[in-house]
């Protein structure tokens, strides 16, 4: 085959371009410090580099999540330390109020101090960070804790997301109690059926305020003032019973018995799938046979319905009862019953029945007969409750009732009283403090003293919560260090995959430059002369 000048020229140009391209690529790698610019240049290395970059992105996101969580935990720990200090001062204030004899003015001063402390604690628990209330659970509301005031303007009830903290014993039954988790690179695991995150695979970044402060009470009933029901008026109330909330509706009737039937029918329908259906007695007290907590509130969204007068008899109340456990068989007792401003003495003889239920029924009948006789001409009709949950409590619709045991002449004053205030203690130290305030205002030092021990127990639980927060902060610090080390290792791997070796590239650059220059020098031997070479 004849080798023509055109063939030689094409071969020369091809080699010159190839060497030039190699030289240019090497120069580009040196100036950009990158091994490649397109994935097509080295597909396998590019795929590895992309995986490394993806891991680095997630590591950075995990560190950001840890930073947010750290701010939550730090703020929560600071808040609870402040709460611990406030609880110590509350305890000291109650002790000071109970240990010396004081008049009503001094008790009112102590009560005002304690009320102020509760308001301060609520403001601490309403602390927010990053636009969310720390102790608001999964809610973004700025004030999960609120306080309701009674008719006299005194703080009476602490609410969490609109629900009294005494109403539910299970913190998980309150609104917005779902946990919020942050992915910190532990291998987030979600149950495909329930869509619930495995707590061990993430970090919790929400705190249930009801769980921190405590919830529920030893026992509780809801007392509806039947006299507040108007004929033809529609009513809507929320009933909380054994951690189940149901809303019931009924229309007021002319007869009290019809109203009780309407309310009971509504309760039966609402709680038909529950373990136990709340019962309402003749005095309007809603309770559970098993002694569980019952609470009732006027439904805030039912604007067109009337509002009932409802007392939630959990914690401290102004109701009194006859303690049947203290009655001696066959013994005669005299007690003073004060209804409003009318005081009457009633006398009854304790049953000698051997069977407990028979003795209980006889005692109830004897006391009710004595009440009917004593108040026959007063216009008042006090009744003694037969419901197991509030057995022996004497009430009179729309009136306050007080009981006191009358010690017969010639009997030692130290004889045990059979009457007592029908009050129970809250499991929440905010509500417990307000209950102590009510007790001090009414002069019930015994109840206020009982609050002291329970506040001490709450302080111990609070210290445990603070310690738990400290452990979680250590866990956060550990994971930050772990991710920092991981980022360093990934950065090194990224450099191996993406960064050019400048020493090798410089050597190649010199080699390609020498080859390129050599090719140019050979051009005189390959490229034929043209007419322009002979023009002087």
Oligomer: single chain
Lateral strand order in the biggest sheet:
11-12-8-14
Q: Largest sheet, described in full?
A: 4 strands, antiparallel
CATH superfamily of the largest domain: f41 fragment of flagellin, N-terminal domain
Instruction: Look up the CATH topology of the largest domain.
Output: f41 fragment of flagellin, N-terminal domain
- What is the C-level CATH assignment of the largest domain? Mainly Alpha
Structural class: alpha+beta
Shape: elongated
What count of structural domains? 4
- Strand % is 15-25%
- The low-pLDDT segments are none
Radius of gyration equals 40 Å
CATH architecture of the largest domain: Up-down Bundle
First-last Cα distance = 38 Å
Mean pLDDT: 86
Give the total of beta strands: 21
User: How do the SSEs run, as a string of H and E?
Assistant: HHHEEEEEEEHEEEHEEEEEEEHEEEEHHH
Residue share in helix: 40-55%
Number of helices: 9
Structure description:
With 536 residues, the chain is of the alpha+beta class. The protein folds into 4 domains: 5-33 and 500-534; 52-218 and 426-485, f41 fragment of flagellin, N-terminal domain (Up-down Bundle), CATH 1.20.1330; 220-314, 2-Layer Sandwich (Alpha-Beta Plaits), CATH 3.30.70; 320-421, no CATH class. It has helices at 5-32, 43-98, 104-125, 209-213, 256-270, 356-374, 429-441, 445-498, 502-526; strands at 128-129, 132-133, 145-149, 155-160, 163-164, 181-182, 203-204, 220-224, 234-241, 244-251, 279-280, 285-287, 294-298, 310-314, 320-322, 332-339, 342-349, 383-384, 393-395, 401-406, 419-421. The strands form 7 sheets. The chain has a 4-stranded antiparallel sheet with strand order 11-12-8-14. Strands 18-19-15-21 form a 4-stranded antiparallel sheet. The two termini are 38 Å apart. The model has no long low-confidence stretch (mean pLDDT 86).
């Amino acid at each position: 085959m004849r080798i023509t000048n055109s063939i030689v020229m094409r071969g020369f140009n091809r080699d010159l371009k190839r060497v030039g391209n190699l030289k240019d690529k090497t120069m580009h790698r040196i100036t950009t410090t990158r091994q490649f610019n397109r994935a097509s240049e080295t597909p396998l290395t590019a795929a590895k580099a992309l995986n490394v970059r993806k891991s680095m992105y997630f590591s950075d996101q995990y560190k950001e999540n840890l930073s947010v969580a750290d701010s939550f935990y730090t703020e929560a720990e600071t808040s609870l330390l402040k709460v611990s200090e406030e609880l110590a001062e509350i305890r000291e204030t109650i002790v000071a109020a109970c240990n010396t004899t004081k008049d009503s003015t001094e008790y009112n001063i102590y009560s005002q101090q304690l009320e102020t402390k509760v308001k301060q604690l609520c403001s601490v628990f309403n602390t927010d960070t990053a636009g969310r209330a720390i102790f608001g659970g999964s809610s973004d509301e700025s004030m999960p804790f609120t306080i309701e005031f009674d008719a006299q303007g005194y703080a009476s009830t602490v609410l969490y997301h609109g629900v009294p903290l005494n109403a539910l014993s299970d913190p998980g039954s309150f609104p917005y109690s779902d946990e919020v988790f942050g992915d910190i690179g532990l291998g987030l695991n979600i149950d495909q059926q329930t869509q619930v995150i495995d707590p061990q695979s993430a970090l919790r970044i929400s705190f249930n305020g009801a769980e921190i402060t405590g919830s529920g009470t030893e026992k509780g009933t809801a007392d509806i003032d039947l006299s507040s029901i108007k004929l033809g008026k529609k009513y809507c109330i929320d009933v909380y019973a054994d951690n189940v909330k149901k809303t019931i509706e009924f229309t007021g009737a002319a007869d009290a018995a019809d109203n009780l039937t309407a309310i009971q029918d509504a309760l039966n329908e609402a709680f038909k799938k529950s373990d136990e259906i709340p019962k309402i007695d003749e005095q309007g007290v809603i309770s559970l046979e098993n002694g569980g907590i019952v609470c009732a509130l006027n439904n805030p969204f039912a604007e067109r319905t009337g509002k009932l007068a409802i007392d939630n008899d959990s914690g401290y109340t102004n109701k009194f009862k006859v303690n049947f456990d203290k009655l001696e068989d066959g013994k005669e007792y005299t007690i003073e019953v004060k209804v409003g401003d009318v005081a009457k003495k009633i006398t009854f003889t304790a049953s000698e029945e051997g069977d407990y239920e028979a003795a209980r029924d006889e005692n109830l009948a004897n006391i009710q007969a004595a009440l009917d006789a004593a108040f026959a001409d007063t216009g008042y009709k006090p009744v003694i409750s037969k419901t197991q949950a509030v057995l022996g409590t004497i009430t009179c619709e729309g009136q306050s009732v007080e009981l006191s045991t009358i010690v017969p002449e010639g009997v030692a004053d130290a004889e045990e009283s059979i009457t007592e205030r029908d009050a129970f203690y809250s499991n929440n130290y905010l509500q417990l403090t307000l209950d102590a305030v009510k007790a001090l205002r009414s002069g019930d030092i015994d109840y206020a003293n009982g609050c002291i021990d329970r506040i001490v127990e709450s302080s111990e639980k609070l210290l445990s919560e603070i310690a738990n927060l400290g452990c979680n902060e250590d866990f956060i610090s550990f994971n930050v260090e772990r991710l920092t080390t991981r980022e360093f290792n990934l950065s090194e791997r990224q450099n191996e995959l993406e960064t050019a070796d400048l020493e090798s590239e410089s050597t190649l650059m010199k080699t390609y430059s020498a080859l390129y220059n050599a090719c140019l020098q050979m051009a005189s031997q390959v490229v034929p002369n043209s007419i322009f070479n002979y023009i002087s």
